[in-house]
Fold these 4 entries.
Entry 1:
Amino acid sequence: HNLAQIKVIKEKYKHLRQLSKAPTFSLTYMGTHHTLMSNCGFSKEEALAIEKGYHELYQVSDAYTESQLRKCCELGYVQVAFGLKVRAPLLKQCDYDSMPYSAKAEARTIGNALGQSYCLLNSRALNAFMEEVWKHPKMATKILPIAAIHDALYFMVEDDVEVVLFVNRELIKAMSWQDLPEIKHDTVKLSASLELFYPSWASP
């Protein structure tokens, strides 16, 4: 798939993109068409088609998750972002291809951790950005962090073009970092964009 075409989706198909979030998250965390039917209200035919399309599109991601879960069954833990380990005592006791229901629930938790743990990249970006802020006496009092939520950082920033330019340059650089070996890629890059809200959060 062409990356440029995928990026256009956010602008051209905003409504459809929003509608896709619930089924995409469900399938990312090892849900099935049954999950789509019960959680999203799809008919069985729709749910099966969405499930099939998802797994065709994300074959590489599926294969990675399966390889990590198989390794987890051998070791009893999985290593996630920044070397953190999540223990899996039930998976350690069973074979990946014939695991009982209780172990499948643990497998979903592990699968979730494999992806969600990389929200730590957001915390890393906040620290890296604030280190740059504190190096500049002018910026240190004009840029205040107020929240870090999932993959977004929020700041109170003085209405000054020099300050906004600094934030736009240094924050995007911090959020585009991908030096962890497992997330380095020649074509798939991390990126970010700055949104300004003024005079209130209701006005992006």
Note: Residues 10 and 195 are 15 Å apart (CA to CA).
Entry 2:
Amino acid sequence: VTCYMASALQFLSVVTPFLSLIFQQDPSNKICNELQNVFRQLRNAFGPLQIRNFISSFGEHSFEMSYREQDSHEFILTLFDYLDKEIGKDFEKARNEIFGIELVRIIESKAVNVKKETEEFQNDIPLPIAHFNSIQQSLDSLTEDELFEGDNKWDTGTEHGKQDAVRRLRFKKL
């Protein structure tokens, strides 16, 4: 059950900044070293991708990594977690520069001039797919204003109580 791994590894192998980051790492890091080998294979091979050694590099978690039912996205997030733990904070910071998404959730009431902004960091954007014809439409739906009114008012706290409000999602950095 490794086809999801192979497709995820093929995707990661064409993300040039990530590829460079992986090859800058010390090959004594077991998982990273095997990932370097997989990427070399992908660049030079004409046959099927051999990832047995890569899977084995997860040690006691090898069985879980190769037989747990997951998709490519889940595998990439799990791989990132393992690499972050194995290599450290500098790697995690550099990886987040490549794949990170900074967003701001804003909720505000114009009636009482109250606004709350919450900044978040993510490594992915969960896109809704039902009822959309394109990625652009799906992205647009994420940034549409959401109204809080009627029975669904925003509770601003003790000073102003429940108010009509608008909630927005804005991407700061992709």
Note: Strands lie at 101-109, 114-122, 146-148, 154-155, 162-163, 165-173.
Entry 3:
Amino acid sequence: MIDTINQKYLSEQKEWFRTTVENNPSQWIIVGSHANAITGGWYSHDSKWMATNWGSLFEEYQVDLVIGGHEHVFLRKDTLYNNEKNADLGVTYYVSPAAQHKQYGMKEDYKDTVDEYENTNYKINTISVTNSKLTVTLYNEAGEKAANSRTGKTLTFELTPKRSGTITTQKDS
């Protein structure tokens, strides 16, 4: 978990992140933060700050999944690396929907910047991790798998690991 609200300690936080990941190699790296590097438009300033200050570090350390909140919608952006899709090196950014009364839609200007979005709240997610797959599934307040109101598609996604259990630094080349 990274405290992205207090931006005063950015360099210390980055050093902590590097040390933590380098000393704890694992197959999966999942980061939690309040704001995320993707936005529905309402908190675009915070998302831009997050992408600018953390995005390249997440790519360098092959982060699999960044989970954030701050926006009160479900948002997902898959496999982003150097601002482009890259199935091998990309980071998946996920904004988990709120489980409270705040509810607003996605701003039109941002709908094409994410892979999937859903405006409704009152959802909870589960994350299941095995050696070969990480699965995120959203459920509604009745405990049923939640579906996207526009597409009808179940709100779930899967990732495969980037590492076999050790960390390999990736370069642009």
Note: The mean pLDDT is 83.
Entry 4:
Amino acid sequence: TVQRGLTVAGRLRHATGLAARLAGWPDDSINTCILGHGEEKGAAHVTVGAQRFAYLPLPSIEFRGQGKARVVGSIRRVLLTTLTDGYENEIAWSRRAMSGQVLIDEDIHKPAAELSTIPANDEIVKIYVQSSSTWATVTPVILPGYDDPAHYRRRLKHGVEADEQKNLLDKLHSRIEALLRKAITQAGLSQELADHANLEWRKVGFWAGAEIADRYGVPQHLKRFPRFHVRIQWRDAQNKPVSIPGPICLGGGRFYGLGLFAASE
């Protein structure tokens, strides 16, 4: 299910590491490019930034029902990619090496799925990689920081005057908006796009079939940070639509498919 995308990403990462070892990859390349570790063994974790593989489970988005609404379904595809340029050779290797590999259920130590390559023009994949000016999350964005460090929500619960309530809500809104714009630049997109994008966020998904934002599996070290479903309309300084190609992943956990957007135009 879409809530267990993190489990699928972890299995794919593990399988990729095994395939790389069998192929004779040096340990430092496995640690950085595949596992995302920049530190020596046993040392504190050091991020390698975008210089690594991203493992993106792709929930199916299908036309269902009498009105043929697009609905988020289960995960049947995964995209092994990078969120930066310059890894064409590694991606080409993964396409050859990963077809036929199995994903292991770590609880029972048995195969859970087998991988096979699919064409780049697959209809579901296209929803995640095409160019579009409007995108909405299928998995929630984990904010790069706390949205309420001053405990505005706590003050709201104790009851405040109408003017003070509006002031606190405005501060919360501004804080979340600033963190989302920060997540855009952290993902390597331009400051101009971050500054002018139209943003909407909420706990309920913008796609039919999407789960409440807090119901998705997230890494343990990111559970303390708020997460929201987000819709973005990319705009330039003149407020004209700008089409951006995917895949687009924002926020914490983006290398494991959290904060994954699908084109919604």
Note: The longest strand covers residues 69-82.
